[in-house]
Amino acid sequence: MAVETHLVGTNENKMVKKSKRKSRISAWCHLHWRKIFAEMVSTLLLLLFGCMTCIPIDHNHFNLVMRGSIGFGIIVIFNIQTFGHISGAHMNPVVSVAAAIWGHLSIELALAYCIAQCVGAILGYGMLVALSSEEVAAGVCVNHPNSRYAISQVLGTEIFITSALLFITCSVWDPINEKHLESASIKIGLTIAGLSIAGAPITGASMNPVRSFAPAIWNNNWEAHWVYWVGPFVGGILTALLYKYAWLKRVDEIRSTEVITWSEEVEGEV
């Protein structure tokens, strides 16, 4: 009888723990689903419209790099302005991992963002394929290294252009700039356009693993695909760590600096 009572009590404890776990997961999903969904939709639109700007006009490839680079930059401006206040509009696993390093996201939410971005990118490029003829859509936005460059040069290019992207992203996140965020979408969008123009002739200027992942899946083209994961993650993570520990000031330090500056101004006026 005592054994049966003990088993019943153990089973009840397990059920209670399971119920609490489900309740926590449900509460977490209820709290964050809008952000995760926004990341999926914004990445979907990035691939759909961004890659649409890379479709040749009547097979004329003239200025295709410029069109694609400026097109992606403008789509990024649109997405940040539309979804930035909801999820941050990362649209890039590297940015989400950097946000986790900064403490802006929990590890769980950063992982959910990355999954949503992968799904959104695949769906977005799939929509582009559905809206275009097979002949036009084939190979559009597929990143592969320029054969004239060594793989180390291609990897280095992805590292440095992604590092540059994360520098401005970290600058936007910096609390000292919290009063100067009205044009953040334009700053980041134009930066992406410029970096794309610079890196496109060498690597295709990915800076974003899912931006390369979705076209690779739909076109079954995996040439040197690892570069478009390793390069951006190495460049992005190193830059986030460098900015955080070398230049980022704590909020109390910022306020202290503002007080000192204000005191100096008052003394100067006197």
From TrEMBL:
GO terms for cellular component: plasma membrane. Its main location: membrane. It is found in: Membrane. Keywords: Membrane, Transmembrane, Transmembrane helix, Transport. It holds the Pfam family MIP. The lineage of its organism: Eukaryota, Metazoa, Ecdysozoa, Arthropoda, Hexapoda. It comes from the Eukaryota. It comes from Danaus chrysippus. One of its GO terms (molecular function) is channel activity. The chain crosses the membrane at residues 36-57, 64-80, 110-131, 151-173, 185-206, 226-246. It is a multi-pass membrane protein. This is (African queen) hypothetical protein. Belongs to the MIP/aquaporin (TC 1.A.8) family.
